[in-house]
Amino acid sequence: MKIAVMSCIHGNYEALEAVLLDIDRQKAEKIYCLGDLVGYGPHPNAVVEQIRSLDIPTVQGCWDEDIVEGLSACDCSYPSLLAETRGKLAHEWTNQEVNPEVREYLAQLPHTYKEDHLCFVHGSPSSNHEYLLPEMDAFTALERVLSSDADVLFCGHTHVPYVRTLDSGHLQVKVNQPNSDEQPAISFSTPLKRIINVGSVGEPRHGRPNATYVIYDTETQAVSLREVEYDYQTTCAAILDAGLPSIFAWRLARGLEFAEKADDPTHVCER
Amino acid sequence: MIIAVASPPGAGKTEWICQQIAQTNKPVGYFSPKTDSLPIDTIYLQSKYPQLKIYQTGEEAALLTESDQTITYIEIPWYLDLSGIEPLLTRLNSHRVAIISADVNNTEFKTWADEVVSGNQITKLTTSWQIHRGVLTGEILDFDSLATFWLEMTQGAYGEVVRAKGIFDLEDGQIYYGDFIPNQPELEFKPLNLPRWLDGRPTRKSGFEIVGNKLEQAEIAQTIKDCCVPESAISYYQQQVKESLATEPEVELV
After folding, report:
1. Could you tell me the CA-to-CA distances from A45 to A10, A54, A121, A245 in Å, in that order?
2. How many structural domains comprise chain A?
3. Which pLDDT score, from 0 to 100, does residue A260 have?
4. Is A82 in Cβ contact with B148 (below 8 Å)?
5. What architecture is domain B2-119?
6. Which residue from A82, A246, A258 is facing B149, i.e. has the nearest CB?
7. What value, to the nearest 5°, has the Cα angle with vertex B110 and ends B104 and B116?
8. A170 located within any domain
9. How confident is the model at residue A73 (pLDDT cuts 50, 70, 90)?
10. Closest CA in chain A for residue B144
11. What is the ipTM of this complex?
């Protein structure tokens, strides 16, 4: 069965519509969404209503959570003071814009969604603020997939799509005990696992304005990273009309989105 | 000897002067008229050559009296009218050097100069260029924010930019130099060889200068403001840097 997985729409209705059309053309039988339906973009309500009306299984992204619970990320989630100021502006605007039904919908979204051997998360199984970056060390990456009890972990949050295959390996854990020469060891083999980052529909960060998402074949395990052109100028105009900072439109048009980004990819906010 | 240097923006006056200073053993002086409020090039050169004698506006007479022992460069900002500074240059009997891109036939500079030196390829100067200057003395900026702003600015987010340069006090206590000329290899911000400032707001001069077309000056000012470390965080950052420097192991070169 062909499934489509998308993430990080960020209130960009034009991009969402283009991706839904492409999914239809690809004849995917089911769609999943990895959250961040709102934030930065000018149409948070329309995006949520569309996802909801299509009954798409969706997990909660960090932006969705922040709209429900208030800003919860600590300062270190932002790469700079400037990004923090802009992120807070976007949050405040979105917070005022979303209607009660949308807020209610975002509040009831789960952090993870599992179906058979597939797991869907926004950031990681540990936190929707955590970045599973492609260069993350293999042991930590494997731990994240194993903790989800799935073979394939779909995530978003970085806005840059990638597929990472973690080959089956043999792990051995030894425990040093004081006053003892014995080193009890536990060893086990790990099956092949995969992390599939589906990129971003509405706020790409790969240097082009095009929306990205993934088509996955559950039978062949084939992954297709899709890049979809859309009329981003309409979204840019809507950003300006909404009174959002013009720099959001400028960056969107260049695929230069920058959201929060922890220096330490395994950083989990404790605030 | 007094050498007056002029060029369109970004052609390479300061860099040429820098090269000349490096090649001489004689005492060297430097004067850049009308830049006292934001002496970006002066601070850059001074950081490279601490022994450089700097002349301020009002000290023009000293240029002449000391010209026997010193080679003094007068860097003429591109926005100064050459005819306006002519009486001074005549009085000083200065040698005139124009830095011009090889593909530009700039008769004004060629007529004015005693010597023409080939400079950077630059965007053709037109009357529509604006100059936007921001004095940041007393402000401390966040490096990553500044890098974001600089990328946006040089890529045209705030209007078409043909030249930008600046000196910025950053949270690590160092003062950094940034320089942008279209079509030239992009220069990373580099710390200048000047003492770290780790005691409150710096009183030394800093700021930026952007030359371009349709510059969104209010947007630029607001974005730079958003790059500044708030008052409440300055002493915290400075304390962190002090502690970090105190615990850094001394490295002995062998």
Report:
1. 11, 14, 22, 19
2. 1
3. 47
4. yes
5. 3-Layer(aba) Sandwich (3.40)
6. A82
7. 85
8. no
9. low
10. A80
11. 0.86
